[in-house]
Amino acid sequence: MDVYKKPYNEEYPVVCMDESPKQLIGETRLPIAMKSGKEKKVDFEYERKGVCNIFMANEPLKGTRHVEIKERKTKKDWAYFIRNLADINYKEARKITLVMDNLNTHCTRCSSLKKLSGYGTGSILFIPQNMGAG
Known about the structure:
- The chain has a single domain (2-26, 47-126), classed as Nucleotidyltransferase, domain 5 (2-Layer Sandwich).
- By secondary structure, it is α/β, with parallel strands linked by helices.
- A five-stranded mixed sheet has the order 3-2-1-4-5, with helices on one face.
- It contains two helices and five strands.
- Helix 2 (111-114) links the parallel strand 4 and strand 5 (122-126).
- The chain is elongated.
- It has helices spanning 75-89, 111-114; strands spanning 14-27, 46-59, 64-70, 96-100, 122-126.
């Protein structure tokens, strides 16, 4: 994509964003410690502890990333993540180019975004479905 060929400019950052649901698990048995001549033993049985969603944004031309973990993945959670990026991480930027996939939670016109300060000062580039995010 041509957007990655642009030279780095602090006032016009290119930020890539993605999210991923993760299952939270816990051990059901304590591992057996290593002994002389013996390996540590771990039982692979686990207990489900729910799920969470990881939102991550990275700025490849600067080499930085920002991660937030939420209990769920909703349009409102996505909007607050983007607002935090704009208001905290890129408050000095004139325009943010946001590169992301085109999921239904990435609601660029939803009502929750209209209430958030700092949004609307950027452009959004969606990754075509056949290219994938990485």
